[in-house]
Amino acid sequence: MADKKRYGLLEMDEETKKRLDKEIRKQPFHRPTGEELKAMLKEKRKGLPRPIDVHCHPYTKTGWKSLGRFRPHLEKYLYNKENVTAETITAEAPTDEEWVQVYRELGVATTPVGWDAETTMGLRPPYGPDELYQSNTNDYMASLRDRFPDVVIAAWGSVDPWKGKKALEEAERAIKKLKLIGLKFQQTGQAFMISDRQFYPLWDLLQEMEAPVQFHTGYTGLGGGAPGGLGVKLKYTMNVIPDFDDVAADFPKLKMILLHPAEGRDEDAVLVCRHKGNCYRELSGMWPEYMPINVPKTWYELNRRQQDKYMFGSEFNLFPLSGILYQQYQLDYREGILEKLLWKNTIRILGPELERSGVNLKEWRINLAEV
Predict the structure, then answer these.
(1) Cis bond leading into 129, ω under 30°?
(2) Which of 78, 154, 321, 342 is within CB 3.0–4.6 Å of 181 for a Cys-Cys bond?
(3) Given this model, what pLDDT does residue 353 score?
(4) Which range marks the domain in which residue 300 is found?
């Protein structure tokens, strides 16, 4: 029998590691993983509450259309696929039930996010009009939670900030009527700067309702590698200072989650998160193995001063949930950090909002005496 080696919290021989390293990158990402890897991952969390995925997308047979014409290009950019059409994407995409089943089999709870960029992606430039585009509505996000409560413990809504008064009305409906946990924004897709004063009434309303908000930070794969980036401008998510910092300062009671490792603005995201007590981070959108190299400041602070600020996100189903967890368990975290990332910090940071949304946190709180 080949000698086993230690890779973070996982133990396996070199041949097994090589085989699993290849397996996690096989397509399609949304199918349940092989039994060997599934058993390995479930063994590592035995006796612990489920990890909570705070950032993923229901890119199902209809849900993928929220990316519109960007999705065929993402198939090439992320997966090296050719001859991609709307029909081939739909054929490979999961049903809602299949999407949820991956979480169920891996023993992970999730809070998926909506997407509404109807103005800029569906109706008019810079990216529209686009006949492929279809929003993942707040009603759809609430329905995922209501239909699959064992897995989808809560959900994040989204509003199109360009809709003005209608955006305010929809934000209030999403939080108060639909009981969504908060709202998510993707500023490159929605083509807006969060510090633009015309959007301040929206942040003011969310602050008043005590609804947290997710903002995309740093590099985006949307349009990545295409001529002109398909029109996408990185300025919308690269201006962490002053853009994000201004909003955090002007709305001190608005709980802001800076999405993704903020590649390209690694140090700025770290500094804003250190300086502003209402700012937090999550780390989806990058294979975990690249974090120590691509975002070294984030990696350093995650393991030290800011260890209580970070939450787990997978970017499923653009990335495979099993593969993201597999790599997370292999990183050289300091003792106790991975547990904080996977669920402890989420309960500390978002506990009140999750309970307001109707989530019973007993599963996690009985394992977290200090909360």
Answers:
(1) yes
(2) 154
(3) 97
(4) 50-353
pLDDT at 27 over 70: no
Mean pLDDT for the chain? 95
Within-domain flag for 107: yes
Q: Phi then psi for 362, rounded to 5 degrees?
A: -55, -40
Q: Is 315 left (phi over 0), alpha (psi -120 to 50) or beta?
A: left
For the segment 178-225, what is each residue's pLDDT rounded down to a tens digit? 999 999 999 999 999 999 999 999 999 999 999 999 999 999 999 999
The Cα–Cα gap between 96 and 169 comes to 28
Query: Per the structure, how many domains does the chain have?
Result: 1
pLDDT at residue 370, as a whole number: 53
CATH number at residue 133: 3.20.20.140
Quickly tell me which residue has 């350093």 as its tokens: 300
Closest by CA to 175, choosing from 209, 207, 203, is 209
Q: Give the pLDDT confidence score for residue 1 in this predicted structure.
A: 56
Q: What is the mean pLDDT of residues 88-100?
A: 95
Q: Is 251 within a domain? A: yes
Q: What pLDDT is attached to residue 371?
A: 46
259-293: pLDDT as tens digits: 999 999 999 999 999 999 999 999 999 999 999 99
Whether residue 210 lies inside any domain: the answer is yes
